[in-house]
Specification:
Elements: H1 28-94, H2 98-164, H3 183-192, E1 196-203, E2 209-211, E3 214-222, E4 227-234, E5 237-245, E6 250-252, E7 261-268, E8 272-279
Antiparallel strand pairs: 1-8, 2-3, 3-4, 4-5, 6-7, 7-8
């Protein structure tokens, strides 16, 4: 059994001093752990608050955008409503019904379809025309080649005919142009195109007969000697050409020509002469001085 001294209080040594009890200190790593935990908790609190503020700001911005879009949509809806109202009023003023609008749309579609078909037909026609044109162009090229050959042949014939034709001195002493001696050679002179050629047959009637720009009156015929006498009316002047011979160039001047006009008779019969008048193609050149007498010397 325990004695009272065991529960009476602390025991003192005989020296009278209380016994020394040594306090145990916390380990240092525990303090560091607490510090790190505190810093971590503080960071988490800060991050949470910052994130909440960012989310709140984004939410507010989104609300503003939604409100702006809503306002814009309302405005657009209002404009559409106004436009629809205006269209309804316009439609009513124009007296256009939905059926008429439907018919108009149907007509527009029909017109577009017909336009496409027309374009297709036109393209086909253009292609056909191009094909025909190419064919005709080939034919024209062939004809042109043939024509060139014909022209070359004609030129050769004219050159040959020209070589056969002769020149001589006329009754005025002027060198004549090429002289034709029959109808075929007259045609050759016409083809040469160097002078104006007027073929004629004048009867012995004593009356003036038109030959190109002049008039001729046949007065006398000597078929045996191939001679004739005639009067020539040119520039309102009468010129007598007496006892001229077939094939002889009978020359006379007219106003506006530097070279004389020439009459060549290549056939003389009992009461008719046949031949041609050759005139210069000059139009306005003044002629040289001609003999003043109505019947030039040497006639």
């Amino acid at each position: 059994m325990a004695t009272p001294s065991q529960f009476s209080g602390p025991q003192f040594s005989g020296s009278g001093e209380p016994p020394h009890t040594e306090a145990s200190a916390l380990p240092r790593w525990v303090s560091i752990l607490f510090g790190v935990a505190f810093v971590l908790v503080a960071y988490l609190i800060y991050a949470s608050v910052s994130g909440r503020e960012a989310v709140q700001k984004g939410f507010d911005d989104s609300n503003k955008q939604v409100q702006a879009l809503t306002a814009s949509l309302d405005k657009t809806n209002s404009q559409l409503t106004d436009l629809k109202g205006e269209m309804d009023v316009t439609t009513q003023k124009l007296g256009i019904t939905q059926d008429e609008l439907a018919r108009a749309r149907s007509l527009a579609q029909t017109l577009r379809k017909e336009q496409k078909e027309s374009d297709a037909r036109l393209s086909t026609q253009i292609g056909q025309v191009q094909s025909d044109t190419a064919t005709k162009f080939g034919e024209v090229s062939t004809d042109l080649s043939s024509t060139k050959s014909d022209v070359a042949a004609t030129k050769a014939d004219l050159d040959a005919t020209k070589a056969k034709l002769s020149t001589t001195v006329g009754d005025l002493g002027v060198q004549s142009g090429l002289i034709a001696r029959n109808h075929e050679e007259v045609e050759a002179l016409k083809r040469l195109g160097e002078r104006n050629i007027y073929e004629f047959k004048v009867s012995k009637s004593g009356k003036l007969q038109h030959v190109g720009p002049i008039q001729i009156a046949l007065r006398k015929v000597d078929a045996k000697h191939f001679k004739y006498t005639m009067n020539v009316l040119a520039d309102d002047k009468s010129i007598e050409k007496k006892d001229k011979t077939a094939g002889e160039p009978v020359q006379f001047y007219v106003h506006g020509s530097r070279t004389p006009y020439e009459i060549v008779v290549f056939d003389v019969t009992k009461d008719q002469i046949s031949g041609y008048l050759s005139t210069s193609k000059e139009a306005s050149a003044a002629p040289p001085s001609a003999p003043a007498a109505s019947t030039p010397p040497g006639n």
